[in-house]
Amino acid sequence: MNSKILGFVSVLITAVLFGSIYSLAKLPLSDIDPMLLSAIVYPIAFIAMVPIARTSFRLSSLDDLKSILIISVLGAVAAPLLLFYGLSEVDASDGAILANAQILFTILLSSVFFGERPRGLRGYGAIVIVSVGLFLASTELGISESVLQYEPGKLMILGAMSCWALDNNLSRRLIKKSSIEPSKIAMLKFLVGGIVLFGLLMATQPAAHVADGLLNINKPQWLAISILAVFGFAVALFFLLEGLKRIGTIKAMVALAFTPIVGIIIAMTTRGESISPFEAIATVMIAIGLLMVSKS
User: Fold this and answer.
1) pLDDT (tens place) for every residue of the chain, 296 residues total
2) Cα(116)–Cα(207) distance, rounded to whole angstroms?
3) Among candidates 292, 294, 279, which has minimal Cα distance to 95?
4) Which candidate, 287, 279, 84, 59, places its Cα nearest to that of 191?
5) SS3 of residue 272 by DSSP
6) Which of 47, 95, 193, 284 has fewest C-beta within 10 Å?
7) Domain residue extents for the chain
8) What are the Cα distances from residue 54, in Å, to 13, 124, 186, 260?
9) What is the DSSP track for 37-79?
10) Of 226, 192, 228, the residue nearest 72 (C-alpha)
11) Count of CB atoms within 10 A of residue 248's CB?
12) Among 181, 294, 199, 290, which Cα is nearest to 238's?
C-alpha cells in the first residue's frame, strides 16, 4: 500500500479508537477515582504494546531519552489525568466534541514552532472558524451575571488536548530526527506514564485505600478498562504515530477530525446522550474549518 494512503488509513483507525474513549471511560468513572483509573490503564497499555513493538528498551542517545521523558509526562501523565477528571464531570458527547481542540492546538503549535503550517488566508481563516466552534462547544454562551461560564470539566479536557497537541508535535519531531520506531515510542511512553501515575497514586492516597479501590473493581469494569487501555490508548497511539510518520502533522490532524464524530455517535447510541443546538452548530463549524485547513 502507498505510504501516504497507509498513513491516512492509520489515522482514521486512530480516530475510531480515540472516539470510543469518551463513552468507554464513563463506565468505570462512575465508581472509580480518575487517578486510580489512570494508574491502571497505562500499565495495561504498556503490556499490550510490548508484543506490538517487539523491540528492546535501549535508546541510541541521551537526546532520545530526554524526548521520551518529555512526551511521556505530557501525553501519558498530565493528559490522561486531566481527561479522566474532566470526563467525570461532563457527558461523553461533550468530551468528544472538545476532542477537536487537540487538532486545533496541534496545528497551531506546528505552525508556530515546528515548521508545518496552513497556507494563505483560507488556512488561517479556517483556524479562526475552528476556534470559534471550540469556544461555543466549551461555553455554550452560558451567561450568569454577565460573565461567560466555563465548566471546570470542559476546561480540564481542553487542558488534556493541549498536552496531547504538544505531545503530537514533539513525537513527530522525534520520529523525523531519530531512527526510533513509533511502536517503541508508544511502548516507552506507556511504561514511563504507568510508573509515574502509580507513583503519584501511592504518594497521594493511603495504600489501604488504593488496595480497596482495586479490590472493588468488578469484572465488567475490568473488561471495560482493559478494552479502553488496549484499543483506546495502546493500539490507537501506535496507529497515530504511524500516521504522523507517513503524512506529517497537519494532514494527520485533519484525518483525526473524525474522532469527535465517532465519539458523539457512540455516546448517543450507547448512553442515550444528546447534544445541544450550540454543540451541533459548533461541531459543524469545526468540521468546515478542518476541511478548509485540508484544502489550504
Assistant:
1) 577 788 888 888 888 888 787 777 878 888 888 889 889 999 999 999 888 887 777 787 888 889 899 999 999 899 989 988 988 888 777 777 777 778 778 877 877 776 666 666 776 677 677 667 666 655 555 533 333 456 788 889 889 999 999 998 898 888 888 878 888 888 999 999 999 999 999 998 899 988 998 998 988 889 989 998 999 888 988 898 888 888 877 777 777 777 767 777 777 777 676 666 766 777 777 677 766 665 65
2) 46
3) 279
4) 59
5) coil
6) 284
7) 3-295
8) 21, 41, 12, 32
9) HHHHHHHHHHHHHHHHH-S-S--S-HHHHHHHHHHHHIIIIIH
10) 192
11) 16
12) 181
* 3-class SS of residue 147: strand
In whole angstroms, give the CA distance from residue 70 to residue 48: 22
Cell of 134: 471550540
Q: Which residue shows C-alpha cell 459543524?
A: 284
C-alpha cell of 19?
A: 472516539
Q: Are 91 and 273 in contact (CB under 8 A)?
A: yes
Q: Give the H/E segment covering residue 144.
A: strand 143-144
Q: Which three cell numbers mark 47?
A: 503490556
Q: Which residues contact 12 (CB under 8 A, 6 or more apart)?
A: 255, 258
All three cell numbers of 138: 466549551
